[in-house]
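Replying to the earlier thread about multi-chain prediction with a worked example.

Input:
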Amino acid sequence: MADHEDVDYPVLDERSLPAYLARMPEVASRLGGAPADWVVQEIGDGNVNFVFAVRGPGGDVCVKQALPYVRAVGAEWPLTPERTSFEYRALLEHGRYVAGRVPKPLHYDPHLRLLIVEYLGGLTVMRHGLVAGACYPNFAEHIGSYLAQSLFFTSDLALAGPDKRILMSLFHTNTEMCQIMEDMVFTEPYWDHPRNRCTSPQLDDERYQLQRDSRLKIAVARLKTQYLANAEALIHGDLHTGSIMVSLDDTRVIDQEFACYGPMGFDVGTLLAHLLINYFAQIGHGTPKDPRSKQQEWLLETVVEVWTNFRLHFCAFWETSGAGDAYPSLFFADPVGQTALAEERESYLDRLFIDTLGFCGAEIIRRIFGFAHTADFDTITDPDRRASCERSAIRMAHQLLVGPSQYQTITAVTVAARKFGEQFGGDYNK
Amino acid sequence: MADHEDVDYPVLDERSLPAYLARMPEVASRLGGAPADWVVQEIGDGNVNFVFAVRGPGGDVCVKQALPYVRAVGAEWPLTPERTSFEYRALLEHGRYVAGRVPKPLHYDPHLRLLIVEYLGGLTVMRHGLVAGACYPNFAEHIGSYLAQSLFFTSDLALAGPDKRILMSLFHTNTEMCQIMEDMVFTEPYWDHPRNRCTSPQLDDERYQLQRDSRLKIAVARLKTQYLANAEALIHGDLHTGSIMVSLDDTRVIDQEFACYGPMGFDVGTLLAHLLINYFAQIGHGTPKDPRSKQQEWLLETVVEVWTNFRLHFCAFWETSGAGDAYPSLFFADPVGQTALAEERESYLDRLFIDTLGFCGAEIIRRIFGFAHTADFDTITDPDRRASCERSAIRMAHQLLVGPSQYQTITAVTVAARKFGEQFGGDYNK
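Result:
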């Protein structure tokens, strides 16, 4: 056992894991051979949890254990170890609909706060791949389906009222993780919170304006109110490109600790935010020899395709599987009703598009001015260059927050992204 | 004990109650004297629960016991006896803020599903009073405050995110009672559900049109979606005039079994619906000798004042006690921010007004075409006369559902109510 005096349950490590896993027949048989044959390797980014790959002669598993604090910081930053139980529950619930897009959960140990899932061999964290310049041609289709499935089928469009209320009741107890989002996404970036940081002094002017922009803060407060009260679907709750594992032909969504019932636009908007963040960052990563212009095109195409695929799949699910209590199918059984419902589906998705753009803007802002930044920008070592890329992203985010309805289509958003990219960060990779 | 073979817990009656109550020191001392001195009287309307008034030499209490079915119907209509526990929890939660407007809860017995509350001597069920022609001059102020207090202080405007999530988690388990509302308010009236009834054949044309009005059904489905997903505040959940006890100088809200986290407009709209229902019904109750025109004026004034008082109190609470997580006060600390937040408060209430009108319309419709009707209309014995009053209400409700934003003010709503009243039911009391 590792030495963690401040944790009141055993903390497993490379040495102790095999004996623990050997007691679980399903896991042991998946690994094959004997415990002595199993190779354990710590693979977590090391910040929050312990994550191990365990490889046996028959197969592999991934083991994730939570401590009651942020691992990299220690006991000064407590973090509920219950987060792993919400990850497990979300994997089970989402797994009913998107089995191929999340790792298969194999075991959850509530005493050790330890989760065992399928090991995703051959996949990399999407953000790392994007920063290195990679494109993933199947990603937009995979994640568009994932979003439609995970959100539609856990919403009132698919579920009976009582079944959804029981799920809401369960996930509403994920209070501590939700509060992190309430604070870090919707609150801290808009005042001088001590843990905020940004590229300074280059972006001091932007930060100054941001914190005095009442129109912007009203928009953010409305989005926060939605996050707090509008329980549309079981959302992943932190769907950035670091929570996605990819290869050229596979896409998996991981790290469901922030799962809760919330607005659908939060997941869709967060994902689009990180694609746009990478787009603006690529302008800074580009060099005359490697201008990354193809990847930039792919990123903007992907923004369009993610939304388009999501919308198409969502509408199709509603048409074929809209058995939930929200829009009773018997209201709309005749041809006139069918037409009205078809129009309402489009109208519903139009409203969701506006929500999505707002949440997208909020996510971009908090990744530049809040505590948690992204490798996309942070790996641009020249601060002037980084700041000019970030400035493009800030201007885009501002428009998405205060005037989302000026964007009639997702293509209009990418046209604006291109414009902001050229305006502030366009010189570096030419 | 009464004989209830199909109930797996003791069902108390006039004879067994005193011995049971004697075991509770707080209740016994409130009643005073000895159990033999206590007079027990069944006072429930007899439909759903057993309700007893217990009077002792020192004071009185009210005892309410739930069976696992609707009392008047029997085991064929099961109804969760857990409803009493939600009533108790709602009395505790709302009681923190509106103590003077709900009966004080004294004891809850989870085994017997039995709730003991303060007895409201001298008060009558508001609907009975209204049907008999009474006016309650303090009602609009009392209920406007009640609505503002109960809704504001249980919302994200007043509560911290984690505290509200725990409350949502608790009340979301009130699935069975919520499903009754989902079905009876938002679904059944819009198709030929077997338990629907209406004044027929007089209103057959209205029913026919209603069930074929796709625009109306889309509006109702949107409201239902709000009821299912938009957890703005702890709502009473069934705030009609039969859930309110009144005297000339007191007002109390009872029967919180349908309490849940839902849209604020549901409570406000339901209450306004029943004031309007009574207004339209009074046209039918009026006679040349007793035209009830003063009461009609009072009802329309009360509609205006309930909303106006609610809005004023709600805004004032937000200004003085807006410590919740939704609109962080530190966003709006400077004068510019203060102005922006003041504008947003008005804008928030404008949106809530539109929600309220929609829910008001849905409640009126379901009380005319659904299963549960009101004594207001039902006591108009001449079916032609009743139907013409109901027709006025239907036309009003239709406008509230399909075009709520045409009403800029609550006064405009009462102007329309007067017009509809004169158009269809205006002849009887002249």
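Residues 17-118 of chain B form a domain with the Phosphorylase Kinase; domain 1 fold (CATH 3.30.200.20).

Feel free to reuse this layout for your own posts.
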